[in-house]
Amino acid sequence: MDAAKQIENLRKELNRHNYNYYVLNAPEISDRDFDMMMKELEKLEHEHPELDDPYSPTHRVGSDINKAFEQHVHQRPMLSLGNTYSIAEVDDFLHRTRESLMGEEFSIVGEMKFDGTSISLTYRDGRLVRAVTRGDGERGDIVTDNVMTIKSVPLQLNGSGWPQEFEIRGEIVLPWKAFDRLNAEREFNEEPLFANPRNAAAGTLKMQNSAEVARRGLDAVFYYLLGDNLPCDNHYDNMMEARKWGFKVSSEMKLLHSIEEVDRFIEYWDTARKELPVATDGLVFKVNNLRQQLNLGYTAKSPRWAIAYKFQAERALTQLRFVSFEVGRTGVVTPVANLEPVLLSGTIVKRASLHNADIVRTLDIHEHDMLYVEKGGEIIPKITGVDTDSRLPDAKPVTFVTDCPICGTRLVRVEGEAAWMCPNKWGCPPQICGRIEHFVGRRMMNIEGIGEEIVVILYQNGWVNDIADLYDLHTHRTEIEALPGFGPRTADRMIDGIEASRQVPFERVMYALSIPFVGETVAKKLARSLGDIDSVMNAGVEALTAIDDIGPRIAESVQEYFNNPVNRDIIERLRRAGVQMSMPKRDDADSSDRLAGKSIVISGTFSKHSRDEYKDMIERHGGKNVSSISKKTDYLLAGENMGPAKLQKATSLNIPIIDEDTFLKMIEND
Ligand SMILES: NC(=O)c1ccc[n+]([C@@H]2O[C@H](COP(=O)([O-])OP(=O)(O)OC[C@H]3O[C@@H](n4cnc5c(N)ncnc54)[C@H](O)[C@@H]3O)[C@@H](O)[C@H]2O)c1
Ligand SMILES: [Zn+2]
């Protein structure tokens, strides 16, 4: 292949990976592989200056701009960092810096490289006025509302001495604990897991629903102060000032005075970082003195006064014991590599998902192969390769099962996907138990006292075969009490939990039914738009797809579910048991058509009701809540601390801006 073709291919590939990483938050390759590809392109472009292109990914910061947000142009571009993978490369950087500074003394600040998503905050007169993502480096998305939900971000500064206006940059992170909780929840709801806390943080920051953002537990750490009248002439002291104003500044930040100290800092954190409560993917070294920073300047993509050192992804070689095939609630069969236990990033890894049949085939795994397991920025261990040299001569390739490993039914291929599933919905135990577990879950019917293990016991004893059987469980009370380790208190808790679930609102019942493709949000929309179960059951495809966010695939799935007589029977039994099958009747005073046909944007914070309550009110009075301002917007319902850009846009489009009192008057009874 000639260089031009090679360069073109690399650019195309890198652009695609940038998109997966920054926009979809779902990288396909490891950061290291990405960085190596980038270095290769840099090298080729260097050798062939005639093929250079300002749009090449080597000159540009990967963009995370999302059309659903308004954008803001950064006063100073937000750049990336040059990266290195070894102490020697960091030392090179220090030598180069010394040369560029003509031998002048300099000190270095060593910092954690937090693995989240960058944010720029602007403060005026001590108050937060705007939060913007890095975007493409030149301009980013305005995410002020979402950032305001992060408790450690000061809305109003403490102390004194801050410039009248300044910018502070940092990283929005999702601490390990919150990340694990979020993924456990997603796993339970059978939603795709986040590959790592960085992707989770970036995805969360770009959500349209600030209440959900608040619930997820983001945090923010700050590492860069910018402005015209900063309090000190060096980076370190400025950060110490920022800490006094109320910003979270990492306590791991350290002033370093020699190459030896830098090297020791790296050696120490190479292992110690595993104990930190947030994910880090490396260290950052910055020249401390601001005048020296200015002298060193920038390349198109990164400052010359700083460098990142990236930690190695941890990789281990271990033997495959066997591949198991596991059946989930929806019947999809997932291959799992069961491994000889191996220590990786501080945890013992025994199992790693192989995802699907295509991946098993691509890796070409044979029985008892030695496999490479990796756990880098990604929390979920991944099989990245096979050591074919150590393969036993007569080892057979691992093949995907053709029949359900549990019930023996022949598997069918899921249309358009790499997945296989067991079609025996009503006879395959993990599917039956999976649906019951889903039904009792916290975000569904929230039946306390019944968890995963108890579901299996109830099923094995023949008492609960489907979700409706739960409501007859009291007839087995004596038998339950007699189970080893149970007793009257446990039985009480279960029965009380079931009793209480009769009050769970209809929209959560919709979600609890395990209708394929009907997740929490879709269930809510179905329930709210159609009002009761009979309307959902009888809705045609047209009526279903007329609802926001419901496409033909979901509509078909809903119809298929209710066309099945087994499901119809379950619904009737649930109805007889007193489970909520309709939305509560609203007081007429609570709803009207006063806002019929009006599109309303909500922005800022309010004192009389929460944003969610206002959204609800808009809908109840016939209006439509929309997230961004356009010519079609009828009103902007504005609270405190509203983003100035939104305000400006509304003014320029002549959209009436109303405060909460005006809004409440608008929907009041005459
Ligand atoms: N796997 C993939 O498909 C894929 C695709 C695109 C990018 N990537 C990865 O992303 C990297 C490029 O992303 P990037 O441009 O955000 O660079 P980066 O993440 O390597 O470094 C720059 C970022 O580090 C962050 N940072 C954290 N702590 C910091 C501190 N103390 N001081 C200063 N900055 C700090 C900032 O957000 C800054 O924007 C690549 O090197 C690659 O590893 C991977
Ligand atoms: Zn089966």
TrEMBL record:
Q: Does the entry feature the keyword Magnesium, yes or no?
A: yes
InterPro entries in the record: BRCT_dom, BRCT_dom_sf, DisA/LigA_HHH, DNA_ligase, DNA_ligase_CS, DNAligase_adenylation, DNAligase_N, Hlx-hairpin-Hlx_DNA-bd_motif
Give the record's keywords alphabetically: DNA damage, DNA repair, DNA replication, Ligase, Magnesium, Manganese, Metal-binding, NAD, Zinc
Catalyzed reactions per annotation: NAD(+) + (deoxyribonucleotide)n-3'-hydroxyl + 5'-phospho-(deoxyribonucleotide)m = (deoxyribonucleotide)n+m + AMP + beta-nicotinamide D-nucleotide
Q: What is this protein called?
A: DNA ligase
Q: Name one GO molecular function term.
A: DNA ligase (NAD+) activity
One matching Pfam family is BRCT
- Organism equals Muribaculum gordoncarteri
Q: Which PANTHER family match?
A: CHROMOSOME TRANSMISSION FIDELITY FACTOR 18 (PTHR23389), DNA LIGASE (PTHR23389:SF9)
